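Hi F.,

I've been meaning to write this up properly since the lab meeting, where we talked about keeping a consistent format for the predictions we share between groups. The idea is simple: the sequence comes first, exactly as it goes in, then the structure tokens exactly as they come out, then a line or two of notes. No screenshots and no reformatting. I'm using this chain as the first example so we have something concrete to point to.
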Amino acid sequence: MVTVKVVTAHEMKGYEHYIIKHVLLDSNQKFLDEHLFDPTKDSAALSIFTLKDYSGTLYVLSLCNKHDIWLNLAEV
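Output, unedited:
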């Protein structure tokens, strides 16, 4: 098992301005998992994913309701 922690340093101002979700894609850009945020409850854009038997490149997307999407990658 591989645990992946994703943190987007971004404000969470309710529905006014927040990170909508984190998305994990594999090395072929295929969907692995996502975490949706509740802007009325979540004070930080933090996700923890558990992946079974994965190694290689992970693409991590952070989607903001105002500023579109950010892409990062990590090796596991």
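Notes:
The two ends are 11 Å apart (CA to CA).
The first strand starts at residue 2 and ends at 8.

If this format works for you, I'll send the rest the same way.

G.
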